Structures are given as structure tokens and as C-alpha cells.
């Protein structure tokens, strides 16, 4: 549009390139999908605005119910997520989905698959879907995932679903992030046995035996129930639920939603929600502080302090413990 002089007014930086945190947060609060996407991109890339974003989002912490879904590749996590979104939307809940991809967000075939499977909700303003890379983070889950959850909370999501492929460490991480963790199994994949080996029994709040249209579903349900029965639980402790599903047909999804609600009720009743969230915050603070220390140690190595101390230790002028103490004092100054 041009003004009376025929000149075009200077356009504001488009949202997709903006670093204006208050504006982005305001727009995200108002339901602007582009602002939400931009904020997640900023937190994912570890942008310098990250602390300002975290500060702006702090008041909205804890407003969403965070549900983790994990399980072996191809077990049906995305299909189940898609159906859960549908069920939650039918109840009028606003939903955010974070699909954590172990490979690149741009080349990962799984992400293309997820996009197709979650296309059903692409035009629904009450649904945010985002894939994130876990590349570069040792544990498997993206280090930025907790911050991305905060963005979605800030955007008014009532529920945030976090899908992560169960490869080793990732399950344990998703459990530390989520209020409720769903572990998906499928018949005939040897999953039930592997679950026990990998310590999955401890992290699952709800087991979903998906692909129950296939042979062996009964045996898988029995295996899991048997293992749950063996576990020691004190009075009032949560007993993991086992739900059957055929996610491709949407079967069992209401049962999954009911199991999530039941677990939520238990969390609140036993003050476990507060405990889990404080543990999550502790892990977040620790990770950030360690990251800062690591960066400072890196810069010390490039600087003069570490080489100087190393020379002293090598020459026997001081010992490595005293030198490490000196280094730490310098780091925290
Ligand atoms: N027979 C049957 N197939 C299913 C069911 N649920 C999902 N599938 C199929 O299983 C395949 C994998 O499903 P996804 O939902 O992509 O599985 P995923 O766990 O998200 O896979 P990754 O993200 O690649 O680890 C797809 O071809 C689905 O159509 C089910 O209940 N029964
Ligand atoms: Mg998937």
C-alpha cells in the first residue's frame, strides 16, 4: 500500500525473520501460528534471544498438560498422535505437537511421513504441529524441547504431545519432560521383553499395545500385564495402565485419552504433578548452567588461563586439584 506521496511505508520485519521478542510473544499469545513457529525456531537454534524468550514465557509455565509418546520406530506413534489430536480437539482442547526427529528436520524421511499423517489438522487453528531435530544433543531429545514446550504453553495449548522415537536414552528423557508418558508397543516386535531390559517399565505411565489388529496382541498385553504385576508398588502408587489400540482405524484412542486423564487425576491427587515439574525445572536449570560452564571452559582453553595453569602443573609448581580450583574460581567470576 502506498501513502499520499506514492511512497511505500517501510515494512516492519516480517514475523518469520523477527527477533522482537515482546511482539512475537504477544502475537503467539493471540494465536498467531507464524509467531509460534518463529519462537520455536529461535529456541531450537539456540538464538541469543533465548533468555529473553524464556523470561517472557515464564508467567505461562505449567499451564499445559505435557504427554510424551515413545516407542520403537514404526510402532505407530505418529498415527496415534494424529488420532489423539482429533480426540482432544473434539473435547475443545487446544493442542500442540512436537515430533522430535533423530535426524535432520529437513532431510528426515520420518518427518515427511509425519507431515502426511498429521495433515488432517493442518488447517485447524487450534493445533500447532512442529518437528524438531534432536541432532547434536547426545541424549536423543532436543535440548530445546523444554523451551519449545514453553512456547506452546504460552500460545495457549491445553495439551502438548511430544513424540520421540524410542532409541535408548530418548525414552527416559521424554519421561522427565512429560507429565504422563505413553509407551507404545506392537505385537510380535519383541517389544515387551525389550521394554523390561531397557528400563521402560519404570517410565511408562500408560502402555499402548498398538496394531492390535495383528496376531499376537493378546500375548503382548499378557506379557506387559505380567511384568506390571511383578513390579513392587507402595500403597497409592500408580499402576501403569495397558490399553489396546488400532491407531490406523482410530480404535482405542478414547481409551488412551481416558487413561491419560486418569493418570492426570492421580498426579494431582498425590501432589506428584508439582514434584515432577520441579524435577523437570531442576534438570533444565542444571543443563543451562552446565552449558554455560562448558562454553566458558572452552573459551578458557582458547585463552591464557588454562595453558598457564597446565604449565604450572606440568612443571610441578602446583597440583591439578589446586589448578582446577583456580580455574573454577575464574569461571564463576
Ligand atoms: N496394522 C496396523 N498398522 C498401523 C497401525 N498404526 C499404525 N500403523 C502403520 O504403521 C506404520 C508406521 O506408523 P507411524 O505412525 O508412522 O509410526 P511411528 O511410530 O510414528 O514411526 P516413526 O516415527 O518412524 O518411528 C504406518 O504405515 C501406519 O499406517 C495399526 O494400528 N495397525
Ligand atoms: Mg513418527
Automatic annotation (TrEMBL):
Domain AAA+ ATPase residues, every copy: 63-207
Sorted UniProt keywords: Chaperone, GTP-binding, Hydrolase, Nucleotide-binding
Family annotation (InterPro entries): AAA+_ATPase, GTPase/Isobutyryl-CoA_mutase, GTPase_ArgK, P-loop_NTPase
A Gene Ontology molecular function term of the record: GTPase activity
Gene3D superfamilies, alphabetized: 1.20.5.170, P-loop containing nucleotide triphosphate hydrolases (3.40.50.300)
Pfam families the UniProt entry points to: MeaB
Family recorded in the similarity comment: Belongs to the SIMIBI class G3E GTPase family. ArgK/MeaB subfamily.
Protein name (database record): Transporter
Organism, as annotated: Micromonospora maris
